[in-house]
Structure formats: structure tokens, C-alpha cells
Amino acid sequence: MKKITVFGATGMIGIPVTKELIKAGFDVTALVRNVEKAKLIFPSGVKFVKGDLDNPASIAESLKNTEGVYINISTRPDDKEHAFNPEMGGLDNILAAIKQSDAQQVAYLSSFLARNYQGDWWVMNAKKSSITKVKNCGKPYTIFYPSNFMENFANGMVRNGKITVPTTSVNNKAWWIAGEDFGRSVANAFKTEQALNKEYSVQGQEDLTMKEAAEKYASSYAQTKLKVGSMPLGVMKLLGYLVPQMKFVSKLMNVMLNNVETFEAQKTWDELGKPNLTITQFAKQA
Q1: Is domain 3-148+177-204+262-275 annotated with CATH 2.40.128.50?
Q2: Which residue stretches of the chain are H helix?
């Protein structure tokens, strides 16, 4: 398999995954809204198709002659439950086009949070229902359930020289993973039939609470000195009434903090490769 179409290439995790697909020698096509902006991220190695997930024609165009598809999409803080959003209408449009394409494998980024979710937040329930949709799309699938991504620190948790973590009595640990390591797993999954119709847990080498991970990141961050502070989760929820994005973040933090994660990635390491980066190493190269 050589030709891969990526949906969500310019997102937080889409970027490192796409870079690893390029390094692995795949011919990558990406559906993007802004081609010029995408070219700044990927100066070479990617063919761009201008379009959006609410435009079925552009999705079909990006899938021409593809052999594999990687889907890396997520709900944004300003998305609404009963309006078009990427993980509901967008995924439906992608899967409808895939059924009419020559794709031989669909790789999908889910999460432990979605797989394990038992609550009533529509965002997480949309993620959970997406798992079933991908399994039933009629094409061989590979679904990934990653732990917390280290990229969360660089993409939102660091503000004004400070990492703010929720204060809570819950101290569950997660096996933090770097997008670069995950990207290699995705690339390797497209290289072997062993990954067809498989589900993989994606976890790193260290199990850390959010506070422990933040402290490791801050102490090793090379660009500037970072402090680690805290804010009661209840205060985050109250701020959510004033700032829509904070409401989304507080809900997501609540799900993350209450997720009980055990180590399940040995099969993934054996079949798709063991991750290399610790949070300390990730922070030093950030």
C-alpha cells in the first residue's frame, strides 16, 4: 500500500501522524480548507485537495486512487450537538465516500476516553458512536485508542508561562504518548495486513497523573521557564458559563481525570513498534 488520504492532517495530532506517513514513504493526500496554510506545515510530501467535511464532492476528490485512509477529526469547542460537526456529519460524509472508493483500509483515531465513556455528554457519545460507524463501514479497519497526548501541553495547557491543571481528589494516571510515536504506529499499521480489523491501545512508557506529567514537562521545557499551577475543577466549570471554550475544556478535563486506565499496549508495541519518547524528551525538543 502506497497511497494514503488523511482527514485532519493539520490538527494537533494530524500533523505528527502525517509527517510520519511521509517519512515512511507513503504518497499522502490531505483534504484541507486552506491550502496555503497547509503548505507552510508540509512544504513537501503532501498533495492537497481544497475542501471541507461538509462538501461530499471534495471528500470524493481526495479519495481518488487512494489505498488507505487515516481519519483524525474532532469536535471543536464551538460545535453544537444539533448542527453539523466533524465527528458526526463529517464522519458520515467520509465513510459514505469511502464505501464508493477503492480504499483497502481505514485507520481511525479514537481514544480510551470514548471507548470507556458512560456519561451523557454528547461530545463523548458522538466519539463513542463513531467507533461503531467505522467498524460497519464495509472496509477493513484499524482503530486506535490512545492515552493522553503530550501535545496537549503545547496546544492549550501552556498559557503565559504557566501550565494550569485541575485541583481534584481524583488522581488517576495515564500512559502519556507523543504524537510522533503514535504516527509511527499508524504508518506501520498501513504496512501490514496483520493490522486489518484490529483495535490497538496506544500508550507511552510512563504512567503519570496530570500534575506529575505537567511538572515533568515544565522542568524540561527548553524554550522558557514554565510554572505549574492549579485551579479547582469547580472554578473551571463556573468559568464555563462565561467562556464557551472553558466549558468544553472543563468537561473534557472531568472525563480525562475520571478515566481509569490500565496498561494494554503490549500487543500494539509487539505488532506496530514500541514508543520512544518520554515527557522529558518531548519537552526538550518542543
Answers
A1: no
A2: 14-23, 35-41, 56-62, 91-99, 112-116, 122-135, 151-152, 179-189, 210-220, 233-239, 244-258, 266-272, 279-285
